[in-house]
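Ticket #314: bound-state structure for iron/sulfur cluster.
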Amino acid sequence: MYGKSEGYRFLFGPVPSRRLGRSLGIDIVPSKVCSLNCIYCEVGRTTQCSIMRQRFNDPEDIINEFSQCYPSLEHGLDIVTLTGSGEPTLCSDLGYLIRKIKQISKVPVGVLTNSTLFTDPQVREELMAADVVVPSIDAATQETFRMICIPHPSLKIEDVNEAVVTFSNEYQGRLLIEILLCEGINDNFEELGKIADIIKRCRYEKVQLNTVHRPPAFSSAKAVGSSFLLEAALFLSKKGIRVEPVSNYIKDFSGGSMTRAELERLISMRPCSVADISMVFGVPKADVEAVLAEIPTEHLEIRDMDGVNFYFIK
Ligand code: SF4
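RESOLUTION: The complex was predicted; output attached.
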């Protein structure tokens, strides 16, 4: 990939995370290995749909890159997240990596996961070492799961959600559950009511309600409106769920700086608008536009979503 080869093999960002603030990502699973093929995925379509854990890279290569580069990237960081181009729990070195990264990082270490491997006790055990775990619950019925997440054929949503309940009651760190709503698929109170029944049995800090904010893998993924996000938050709250709509929140920074290499690294991992980039680096939009103009057009892809241009390194 053009942008990533300029910089790191495994690190990306800091990137704006609607859920966690300013996040330094560690990409421990190659693009695009995942147990799901979510229609809303912002890193593209799954090319290898798998539930088999494996070693994708020498873990020492990941640790070495992190320990060498962390000091120059730690300013203003809120969290280090193991995530990236696929499902991180598919990496069989996950537990080792979390423990080693925690020894170096001064900010919490989190894992963003689609939850599908929580049925494996070994995965649950490895995740215990993380400070923050963010599992997704986008569906409670197999039909909705199939429509929104296009799962590996062996996955049953009932088993996955039961495993989230089990994990949440074993885990001692911060558990933030994400529900991502897509118009016409899981944006109905019947499905949300069933999801609420599962979450009520979990030990968690809060539920974050989200929708599609970046160009999705499939054009069928449509965002719900902000009024529905609030309505859904109210519905869940009335059922006793601690919930907040995340909307398009990105932590704001000002007085920052940005090099072209930093910008390219950011948009090689995630499509961003000029406003996103401006907020991540704390620089004026005009500066962002000037640096974007320096990138050769053959390397820069521009995707329009609801009238907003998102920039991505090809
Ligand atoms: S959103 Fe996450 S779980 Fe879904 S396909 Fe993309 S990487 Fe996999």
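RESOLUTION NOTES: Residues 2-251 form a domain with the TIM Barrel fold (CATH 3.20.20.70).
TICKET STATUS: resolved
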